[in-house]
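quick one, 135 residues, struct below
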Amino acid sequence: MRRLRRVLVASLLAAAAGGCALYPQTRGTTALDRADRLAREGALEDAVTAYGEYLTQHPQTEAAPRATASRETLRALLGARGELTRLRDELARLREDLARRDSDLIRVRQETERLKTDLERLKQIDLKLERRKVQ
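---
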């Protein structure tokens, strides 16, 4: 009976020690898993916030460097997305400006043709007047 009790106590101590040894590695994994899930789902702003919260609560865990890298990568991605949006808006504005200038150019060309025609007509009138004076 004593032997059974010793084995039972020894097993419980081994299990407790084993559980304690695993605790630092698994601590906070649900928060990290949540951040990873948010990133996979495309909720990047929320994922950055979740990684930041994880790092605030668990700065010394083995997963902290990965969480930091993930957070910084997502920040860079969000920055690039913002820049892409800004550039798309700028491109749309430039295209509108180019279309406006093209229509202005077409209008100016039409006006130039009209003025050339008027000038030719005036030259013809001038020639007729000179011929009348000469006769």
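The two ends are 150 Å apart (CA to CA).
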